[in-house]
């Protein structure tokens, strides 16, 4: 390849890099900047003279001179390694506190074979958004848990009233219907009280649910119904919460 072609190759590569939207710089084997994208200059508010030909770790008054990062970059060419997702948290002079993700690998640039392609991604806003989302989800789970607890208490009270009513009616058929309603309400109250709102839609161990449900049913046997003890044994099967409701909707279906 003659010098003219080599020059065109280099100019083409520089033109391509300069148009990339992400902050990109290409370093030589001595970690000096050969070319940087327009996005790099704009993001870090620096001029060409402050970047071109400078050692990477001298940029921004040494802001990138991080021992661990230096060790990684110095191994890219001699050891044929790559830097993947290296996170930098730093209070930059021009940008303030930011979180940057760095990726680097060896590339061929123009007529030079030993160069490093280095990309820098600012993920500060994404991390903040993620943190805010996690906080909102935590608040939602707390509210759901409180709401379910209140609903379960109300259902427990309703179930007790229904069972008292069942003990006072004379009709066997009416008594049976009231007892069925009681058991269904106890089942729903147990689900509301014990399902973790943060695992909405996830599978729940059947044996754990049935143990809790049977304990609730046994404790609710008041009035004209004799207190009982229910022992539950089983395997490791898991079901969706809505299917568990169907399982526990009437104790006569599974006792």
Give the gist of this structure.
By secondary structure, this protein is of the alpha+beta class.
Fold and architecture overview:
This protein is an alpha+beta fold and 255 residues long. Mean pLDDT is 78; it is low at 1-8. A hairpin with a 4-residue loop joins strand 1 and strand 2 (33-36). The protein is rod-shaped. The chain has helices at 3-19, 38-44, 48-51, 59-62, 67-76, 124-168, 172-194, 206-220, 241-248; strands spanning 24-28, 33-36, 83-92, 96-109, 112-122, 204-205, 238-239. Helix 7 (172-194) packs across helix 8. The strands form 2 sheets. Strands 2-1-5-4-3 form a 5-stranded antiparallel beta sheet, with helices on both faces. It is an enzyme of class 2 (transferase). Residues 11-78 form the PAS domain.
Comma- or semicolon-separated keywords:
rod-shaped; disordered N terminus; 52% helix; kinase; Beta-Lactamase; five-stranded antiparallel β-sheet; alpha+beta
Average pLDDT rating: 78
Please give the number of β-strands. 7
What is the total number of structural domains?
2
- The amount of helix comes to 40-55%
- Look at the helices and sheets and give the structural class: alpha+beta
Order of helices and strands: HEEHHHHEEEHHEHEH
CATH architecture of the largest domain: 2-Layer Sandwich
CATH superfamily of the largest domain: PAS domain
* Biggest sheet details: 5 strands, antiparallel
Query: pLDDT under 50 segments (min length 5)?
Result: 1-8
Cα distance spanning the termini: 86 Å
- In CATH terms, what is the fold-level topology of the largest domain? Beta-Lactamase
Give the strand content. Answer: 15-25%
Shape: rod-shaped
| CATH level 1 class label of the largest domain | Alpha Beta
